[in-house]
Amino acid sequence: MPDGATIQRMFADVARGYDRTNRALSLGIDCWWRRRTVRTVAVLRGERGLDVCAGTGDLSFALQRAGASIVGADFCAPMLARSHHKGNVTSRPRFVAADALSLPFLDATFDFATVAFGIRNVSDPIAGLREMARVVRPGGRVVVLEFCKPRVPLLGVAYRFYFRRVVPLLGRWISGATGDAYRYLHDSVMAFPEREPFLQLMQQAGLQRSQLRLLTGGIAAIYRGEVSR
Questions:
Q1: Band of residue 88 on the pLDDT scale cut at 50, 70, 90
Q2: Measured between alpha carbons, how far is 141 from 74 in angstroms, rounded to an integer?
Q3: Do the domain assignments include residue 133?
Q4: Is 96 a member of any domain?
Q5: Structural domain range at position 120
Q6: Region 205-228 average pLDDT
Q7: pTM, to two decimals
């Protein structure tokens, strides 16, 4: 896995075209995945939430619209800068530059924490999950949206071809990136633990009642755990 500085540079490289590239490569399905994630969080109006690895803020804004008061955190400032033109100025999430492994918040500050397509970029995922759990109150929720590898034979073959051959070329062209961010996307998804192994990581991080929901034939998954009381 590349070191943190390399990953920062990759995301800074794609920041300008990140949103339009996501929409194009996923055919817009990523928006539906985030809506499902918001429903899984089950936001109560007035709750405080933390969105880790927030990127350009898509999930942060969706959670804010659901009635929560959101802080979005990401260690790549150029990505956070792309959030400035989004949303209603009077009801925007607050964004801060912060490392997922060292969150600048006190214990039990939030009612829930989320991370969308970011936990696989954390050098120590268990430590990242523990940090999220630390800043969430006892009984609060930690919800993760992440890519999966589909196990349906024909879909799996098509997915692997598209992800390995098409996504790196198309992603680089649409985003205007000069580096290998979309090759890294493929490699990181292929290497990352998913489904039951990821639930085990959540348990190792101290989260309870861990569960998962597969999306779109197993291309993505939502994981949910609770902070021990």
A1: low
A2: 19
A3: yes
A4: yes
A5: 27-149+192-227
A6: 96
A7: 0.93
